[in-house]
Amino acid sequence: MLYPEARKAVELAAVLAPMWEDGYDIAAARDANRASALSEEPEDVAEVADLDADGVRVRLFRPGAGTGVRAKGASKGADPGVLVHLHGGGFVFHDVDVHDRPCRRLANRLNQAVLSVDYRLAPEHRFPSALDDVDTVLDWLDHDGSELALGGPTYVHGDSAGGNLALVAALRHPGRFRAGVLHYPFLDPQGGYPSYELGAAAAFDPREAAWYWQQYAAGEVDYTNPDLAPLLSERLGSLPPILVTTAEHDPLRDEGEHLAALIAGAGGQVTCTRYLGQIHGYWRHAAFPASEQAILQTCAFLRSQ
Asked: Where in the sequence numbering do the catalytic residues fall?
């Protein structure tokens, strides 16, 4: 059963123009997404800084004093380390502005710096451009992180397409991250899991998913490349501890849960939680009570590592 806020979102999505039809205006949709996201009241943090990470725009959030939900006995002030956040949006939409509000909440609850990456978007920049940008940011952190006074461990975090990028980043850089969190990750370009039968009733039509992959992939051969389709990777056992969350009414539900089973089967450490009553995309919207719960679960998981 859909929870009330999820049901309302499904009703609103039903009147939007399908992106897979001819004439769809990607630029206008990006502008509308940004305007909607920025209309949400921002939560105060200690610092927000837009930085140049060797040509890739990043936004650094430092938590506000006294805002973190700290473990018992923790000292005041931000905890050392940084969480690298990779936004969702089907590899086509969203940016550091659209994810500004959830990153503020995440930084404050975690009591740690969050670095949001403004990677290049498809179809203007196809696979593997986004991954190359993530690699550039990680190299930049290695060289310039000390100047930012971040120190400590690095974690990786992403939702939807960002979950894909976060997972692949961890696979491409074994040992680089202390832990990772993937919210309803977008993993399977074949869209072959039973949860895809939820379709438009879950505000995420399978034709939309297929359209995103078509924008991202440079060609059909990419569909079997583990850097695009990480469920095909033979290195899932090399991952750090991973938290996967899925939404009950999300076509991507089954592929996220299958990922968790594959990691466990490869000997990795993984936790998987299904959020009942929820749809794809709930994590970044404060109007969904489950968003706050997922953020708090994320914080508890990362602290446990």
From this structure: 160, 250, 280
